[in-house]
Design brief:
five-stranded mixed beta sheet; alpha+beta; three-stranded antiparallel beta sheet; single chain
Amino acid sequence: HPDLEYAVIARSFNQPRGIRVLSFNLGKALSTPKGLADEVLLPGDELFVFGYGIEGQRQFLLSPVVDQLKNYSSQQTPAMVVNVEGGVAEPGTYPLTPGMKVSDLVNAAGGLKETAQVQVAEISRQTITDGNRRIDHEMVYLSDILAGNTDADATLQQYDTLVIQSDPRWTERYTVELSGEVRFPGVYRWL
């Protein structure tokens, strides 16, 4: 079934940047035709709708868009891309859309994994000042963002990387199977 929270339109232009990427909530667009979330498609637009549970699908479908954004970049105009790593369904590089927030990037990546540490995450941001590159780190409180606190939902910039750690209390379920000449053969949980 389709992801109704996140869909993408890639719009081509005959301008220096060549492409503009918009994201929108497909569920809201379908439930309210001609509403704010219902983006008008133009000739030449590419519409990307993603499914759940198809590993690597988002990165596969969006890689030509991301590559095009990178190809039109320079030192003066960095590529309009952001990265997410760690506890999301589809980590990777995504188009940076106008006004994109941390919650938007999490939605773009298919949501949080059940192993995700939902208290805090970190944004790593590259800045170049007078030819010197610097990386700053900003903590964001995912728990506040998930609770709907819009003030906690930071706006992203080009080449930001959002890192969501795994909860250290979470353990994978490991099993061992006993078979053969044993009294109680079967599958048992093992820590």
